[in-house]
Amino acid sequence: MDAPLLLAKGEGAALVTENGDYVAVRELKEVKKVFWIETKRVWQIAMPIVFNIWCQFGVNSVTSMFVGHLGDIQLSAISLINSVIGTFAFGFMLGMGSATETLCGQAFGAGQVNMLGVYMQRSWVILSVTSILLLPIYIFAGPILKFLGQQEDIADLAGSFSILVIPQFLSLPFNFPTQKFLQAQSKVNIIAWIGLVALILHIGMLWLLIYVLDFGLAGAALAFDITSWGITVAQLVYVVIWCKDGWTGLSWLAFKDIWAFVRLSLASAVMLCLEVWYMMSVIVLAGNLDNALVAVDSLSICMNINGWEAMLFIGVNAAVSVRVSNELGLGHPRAAKYSVYVTVFQSLFLGIFFMAIILATRDYYAIIFTNSEVLHKAVAKLGYLLAVTMVLNSVQPVVSGVAIGGGWQALVAYINIGCYYLFGLPLGFLLGYEANLGVEVEQTTERMRIWGGQDIGVDKIVAST
Q1: Could you state, in order of their start, the residue ranges of all structural domains in the chain?
Q2: Over 60: is that where the pLDDT of 464 sits?
Q3: Distance between CA 191 and CA 198 in Å, rounded?
């Protein structure tokens, strides 16, 4: 790891100790230098990751845009799969893969590069088994959604789409660990290029399969499957051919100490799932309102917009995780701490910036997803809460990234249980269904109350951490 050497040669040379860590910073001039140094180092890692995540999220978002113009019921069906079934499985798989981020980052910082490939393979094994255990969720998505109270025709269409995207789900056990393997070494530019090419090809496939060949939802699912496996294979090829230090071939060491790895993977999964499953629960609550079609569609549009900002901070999450794990692996606790301070400050500033954009455009952005005037008005009324969410969700992913980098997933999991599920979700239910705030309550107002519980829950997480 050459980070301390780079720091010593640069403008911050006077700020480091003999072992490469920062000295205690007290004067304003020193604060400015550290702030600038850490800004460069975090965003050099974060920007390619953010770009790649935007591209991969764009695959989901663009698919919803194409399908949304087929009809409102099609938009609701794909929203349920992406926001409920997909979020449940995706969140668990991504969380399990975060153990690779912790161990690979710390091993790379400590100079044990040869272990990165072993950790990645170990994660392949664990996530492959996990994906098989989660398959019934996709196979029985229709009955599950009906059991959760979703409208029958929407649930049936969503169940059919769920079966078709199983190949996409089966790419995740190889996609996530490989991505974390590359991120731990700051080899993030290749991830960004792969994501860009995949997004461009995906848009072309959607247009061809949905509109030219008239395959409808089946065409969207086929494009989704091909794109996801294309990204995964491209990453694997790069690792095998160009990452000779970290990748030394398949090894039986992948099965050694696997239960310790499973425990860390489960802690990571619980930490992340408690966050992403909350969003799933909000969609389920909306689907139980009287006008489920408008409720699910308008809320999913807002969450889709919110997702673009969330992807930025997930990229920052990954970057600060890499910084913290690398510096802790090197024995530089002060460098890790200062990196966190800088990243949290900048994330809060970005959250305020995005809030202003949402407030300025709240009457217009629904046009991207649907031609329905009813949905346009419903989404516009949710714009104020969406804007608040932009701020509240800006800092929390950074805190999660710090936890992943330090291996403190279990502690954050306990905090998330209290904030999301013991406080936020029950409050959302009470505001959405039980509060007697008038004789006649519009559906949009009810959705705003449900979402209000989410915002307050996120706020408690930031304060608790």
Answers
A1: 71-256
A2: no
A3: 11
